[in-house]
Amino acid sequence: MRPREATGGPPRDPVGTLVGFARTLRAAGVSATPDRVHAWLGALGHLDVRNPRDVYHSGRLTLCSGPDDLVRYDRCFAAYFSGFTPPPPRPAPPPVRMPRLVSVPDVVEGDPSGGEHRPAAASPAEVLRFRDVSRLREAERAEVRRLITLLDTDPPQRRSRRLRPAPQGRLDPYRTIREMLRRGGEPSRLLRRRPRRRPRRTVLIVDVSGSMAPYADALLRFAHAVVRARPRHAEAFSTGTRLTRLTRELRIRDADGAMTAAAAAIPDWSGGTRLGEELKEFLDMWGQRGMARGAIVVICSDGWERGDATLLGEQMRRLSRLAHSVVWANPHKAQPGYRPLTAGMRAALPYVDAFVAGHSLAALEELARVIGGDRRA
After folding, report:
1. HSE, side-chain direction, 13 A CA sphere, residue 94
2. Does domain 202-371 have CATH number 3.40.190.10?
3. Per-residue pLDDT averaged across 344-357, rounded?
4. The pLDDT of residue 281
5. In degrees rounded to 5, what are phi and psi of residue 101?
6. How large is the C-alpha radius of gyration of the chain?
7. Which segment, 1-15, 171-185, 240-254, is predicted with the most confidence on average?
8. How large is the angle between the packed helices 14-27 and 52-63, nearest 10 degrees?
9. Tell me, what DSSP letter sits at residue 289?
10. Per residue in 265-318, pLDDT tens?
11. Exposure string (b/e) for 191-210, b if CB count within 10 Å is 16 or more?
C-alpha cells in the first residue's frame, strides 16, 4: 500500500513532526524504540525530508520490527501525514509452521538396512533466548519473564578469614596435637585446614529512565531473581532522576508481586538520567559505609547521561576502588556496529571490569555467569 502525498508545504519543525509520528506509532503498538527513531532521523539526514516517499520508506525500514508492524505503520502514516484513514487491513495469513529438523538416522539393532528418522522441532524457548526483549509480542514477553525467574543466579563466593578442616591446606597444629593426646601421645597423622567460603555481596543498580524503558522490566526481573536467590547477600536500586532502594520490594517471592511493589516504590519511571549524581548518592549513603566494599556491583544502563559526565567518571573511580569488580550491562551493546560513544559510557568504561549486553534472555544468562564467575576463586 502506497501512502498518499502529504498536502501543504514543508513543516516548520521537521524533527518535532517526525518525533510526534514516532509517538503515534508507539501508541498504535509499533515498537518504535528511541534507538530506532534515532536511526530513522539519521537515514533522513541523507534523504529529502520534504519528499513523502523518502519519509515513508525510510521509516518503514527503521521503525518496524516485524510483519505485524507494517500494517499499523501504513495506517498511522496515512492518518498522520494526510488525514486519510485507509480501510481495515485484510485478515492476516495463517502462521507459517516452524521448520522441522531431521536427525541422523539411528540404526536399529537387527535392522542392517537402515534405521528410523526422529524429527525434531526447534524449541520456542531456544528461539526466544536470543530475541531482543523490546521487540517481543505480549505472549513472548510473558514466556521470557517466566524463564528469567528460572535463571541460575547462585551467589559468587569469597574466601573468609575463618578456617575449616580440610584434607588439604595449611597444617592445623592444635587439632593435630589434640589428636595425638587422644592416642596417648603417639603421632598419627597431620591434620590440615583451609579458609571457609562465603557468598560475596552483589549490588544491582538498574536504570529506569525513558531511554531504558523497553528493557527496565526484564532487568528488574533479573534483579529480583538475584535478590530472591541470595536475600542476605544482594541489594538492588533503581536510578533515573532519583535513587531508590528496592531490596525490600524485590525480596517478595512472587515475581509479579515484586514488580508491582517495585513500580509503586519507583517515583521516576521513564524520566531523565543523572547517573553521576545518583552514583554519588549511593556511595555516600551506602557504598562507602560497607555495601560496596568487596562486592560485585552491576550497573544496568545505556549510559545516556544528562548530567555532568565528569562527575560520573569520578564516582566510577571511587566505586572501582571499593568494589571487588564492576560490571556494566548495556542493552544496546548487542546492536551491529555499536560503539560506546556517549559521554557517560566514555567516562565510565575505564573503571568497568566487564562490559556486557542485557537485551535478551541469553544476554541475561551471560550476565549471571559473569556475576558468578569467581564462585571458585
Report:
1. 2
2. no
3. 94
4. 95
5. -100, 140
6. 28
7. 240-254
8. 50
9. I
10. 998 888 888 899 999 999 999 988 889 999 999 999 998 888 889 999 999 999
11. bbbeeeeebbbbbbbbbbbb
Residue pLDDT, tens place only, 115-138 = 444 444 455 667 788 899 988 999
Contact residues for 233 (Cβ-Cβ < 8 A; gap 6+): 155, 199, 200, 201, 202
Pairs from 43-51 (Cβ < 8 Å, separation ≥ 24): 44/18, 49/10, 49/14, 49/18, 50/10
**Element housing 256 (H / E):** helix 255-265
Location of C-alpha cell 562490559: 355
Sequence ranges of the domains in the chain: 14-82, 162-197, 202-371
CB 227 within 8 A of CB 260: no
**Cβ contacts of 180 within 8 Å, gap of 6 or more:** 186, 187, 188
Which SS3 state, helix, strand or coil, does residue 159 take?
Answer: strand
DSSP 8-state code for residue 1: -
Q: What region, left, alpha or beta, does residue 36 occupy, with left being phi > 0 and alpha being psi -120 to 50 degrees? A: alpha
Q: For the chain, how long is the longest CA-to-CA vector? A: 107
Give yes or no for a contact between 71 and 77, defined as CB atoms under 8 angstroms apart.
Answer: no
Pair 221, 259: CB distance under 8 Å: yes
Tell me how far apart the alpha carbons of residues 242 and 362 are, in angstroms, rounded to a whole number.
30
What the block records as the C-alpha cell of 207 is 536504570
Packed helices 361-371 and 213-229: angle between N→C axes, nearest 10 degrees: 40
pLDDT in tens, 161-205: 676 677 777 777 777 777 777 777 776 777 777 776 678 899 999
Distances (CA, A) of 318 to 221, 351, 362: 28, 9, 31
